[in-house]
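In response to the reviewer comment on reproducibility (Comment 2.3), we provide here a single inverse folding case reported in full, input and output, so that an independent group could reproduce the run without further information from us. The structure tokens appear first.
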């Protein structure tokens, strides 16, 4: 049985250099793990069975590297990729660590910072494309405020739009095969971050010059920090054709950004998420944007990475069982029965259909008496998840 939970390239499991490379610094404590080089991280990921590795520009090339250093780092990284067979499906820009970005990047009040952010992003896009990335993530960690005395939020929307429009034109001009995935988060590190949720990003994308090039990168922890249902957010993004990437991890509701191992806290949400991705046939990266507990050494980091992938595969198998479970499927079918009685009224609007429906009679009391058997359905789901079914 355990053999079937071994990751393969077809699973498209990816990690960021910053995830397994996380050294365990937090606001109250110093690093607890030695930094691994990008080449060491590639080898670690290959050892645990990942398919790909993603990075921020400065995870790979330090912000103050000389051109010669950059070339050497990129050469070594490419060699490690070639040696291990790992791919780079996604890249992104660090627009949050450097003090220059303390008031945001594309939405900073200082026009020079906005210009520098664009320059840094164009260079990072070039780097990502050079290494094979076809998805480019934008996470605006500093694009927000602590107080709205500082910025007009309408101007911020316009500044962010101007930046994304500029960069989609840049990508077209270069002839790159690259799509953008915008990643929302409600807060942290800023007090409030603009475009706080997947829904907000979807609304924004429709206002861009090239909306077809731009989708979302929903992160489980981020929607949960906002108290929202992640499965619903991902479903809406998928249905809109906008699920370009996904960040998997876990999170206790309403806490700080915990970035826990996938499936380690909300098993049920993780289950319905995996079921959704598998049922609809999402074929992008399954990217784990999480890190090991601060208590771990490098072996613990591997346990963390293996755990993310193994839990995904276990839940994928559970989803197949849910779909094949006659009693569960029977209950679902029963809840949706009754269509033959209203078949004449179903379908797109026509004047005749509307008139017939207005004249129809319904036994409202009987509809209200119906039991949906969701207690039973959910209990069966729980028993399946708990391993007794
Ligand atoms: C976070 C974010 C980041 C982004 C990453 C890629 O809350 O820290 O999720 O990890 O995903 O910067 O843009
Ligand atoms: Mn996060
Ligand atoms: Mn993320």
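Designed residues, in position order:
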């Amino acid at each position: 049985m355990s053999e079937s939970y071994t990751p393969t390239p077809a699973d498209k499991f990816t990690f960021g250099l910053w995830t397994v490379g996380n050294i365990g610094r937090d606001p109250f404590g110093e690093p607890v793990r030695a930094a691994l080089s990008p080449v060491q991280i590639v080898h670690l990921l290959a050892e645990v069975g990942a398919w790909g590795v993603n990075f921020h520009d400065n995870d790979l090339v330090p912000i103050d590297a000389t051109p010669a250093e950059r070339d050497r780092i990129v050469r070594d990284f490419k060699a490690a990729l070639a040696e291990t067979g790992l791919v780079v499906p996604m890249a992104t820009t660090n627009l949050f660590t450097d003090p220059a970005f303390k008031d945001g990047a594309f939405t900073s009040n200082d026009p020079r910072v906005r210009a520098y952010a664009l320059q840094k992003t164009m260079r990072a896009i070039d780097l990502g494309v050079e290494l094979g990335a076809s998805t480019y993530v934008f996470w605006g960690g500093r694009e927000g405020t602590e107080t709205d005395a500082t910025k007009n939020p309408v101007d911020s929307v316009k500044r962010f739009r101007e930046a994304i429009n500029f960069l989609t034109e840049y990508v077209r001009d270069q002839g790159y095969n690259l799509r953008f995935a915008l990643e929302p988060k409600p807060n942290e590190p800023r007090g409030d971050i603009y475009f706080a949720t997947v829904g907000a990003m979807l609304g924004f994308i429709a206002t861009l010059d090239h909306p077809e090039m731009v989708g979302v990168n929903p992160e489980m922890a981020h929607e949960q920090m906002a108290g929202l249902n992640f499965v619903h957010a991902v479903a809406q993004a998928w249905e809109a054709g906008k699920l370009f990437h996904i960040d998997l991890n876990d999170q206790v509701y309403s806490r700080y950004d915990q970035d826990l191992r996938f499936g380690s806290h909300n098993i049920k949400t993780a289950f319905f998420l995996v079921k959704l991705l598998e049922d609809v046939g999402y074929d992008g990266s399954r990217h784990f944007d999480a890190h090991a507990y601060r208590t771990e050494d490098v072996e613990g980091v591997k346990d963390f990475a293996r755990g993310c992938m193994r839990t995904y595969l276990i839940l994928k198998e559970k989803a197949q069982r849910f779909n094949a479970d006659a009693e569960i499927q029977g209950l679902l079918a029963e809840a949706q029965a009754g269509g033959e009685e209203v078949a004449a009224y179903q379908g797109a609007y026509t004047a005749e259909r509307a008139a017939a429906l207005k004249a129809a009679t319904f036994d409202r009391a009987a509809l209200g008496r119906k039991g949906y058997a969701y207690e039973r359905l959910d209990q069966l789901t729980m028993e399946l998840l708990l391993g007794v079914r």
